[in-house]
Amino acid sequence: MGTQTEFSETAGLYSQFTGVLAGFAFASIVALLSVRLTVATTTPHLARSYAPLMGALLALIATSLNYAVVASDTSDTSRTASLELTAGAGFAAAGLMLIYSILTVLRAVELDAPDSTGVAARAAKLTERLLILGACPVIMLLMNGAIQDHIGATASSEADDARFAELLGVAAPIGSFAVGVLAVVAKAQIAALLAPYSDLLGSVLSTAAVVVAIGAIAATTITISYFGVDVVVVDAVPIIAVSTVWLLITLGQAVACID
What does pTM read for this prediction? Predict the structure, then answer.
């Protein structure tokens, strides 16, 4: 991060970026509604894309607002490192839902209007692998970077909680990749086990992502409003943030296995 002030400046760019992505998610919902209103045949599988798309839209809007709030804080203290963690948790939830919603739409279109060339099916499989093996571990790696910034800002690397947080930050991306490999290898078994609960798990994932994104705004607002610039943020903050994101990511990897 360099200095905390630099992150506050970067947060403004993150806010713009997530705002643009929210616009794309909204456009996708409008396009989906247009298809549903004009198509001559029914599209039952495509209708399942509403929840993930709405989850992505709401999470992205919440994250854009969150980073706008973070950008307003220019204090060069450990408090800003805490804001990096809480805002990062919301960004992780929004990023997961955006890629998952794309996967859901690709699979739904293939089921409702099969492509004889197989191009759509391959695109869906590529997106699935990107989500499970690529995006999820990378998201956890970014959270690890936020933990390192927190420890550097608070100078608490010798504390027990800080050491646990640092270990968790290293274990999370490695564990996420390991879970992804397991999900790819045992995809058929996982899909068969979870298939009866596919709609429920999809709704739970979408709802959980929105809750995390909104919770991140609440954490950011409380931190700025009620904690002074000289406060030393406790090491429980990164532990809670990374654990929450890791659980959400793992759920996303499992749900992505269900065709």
Answer: 0.86
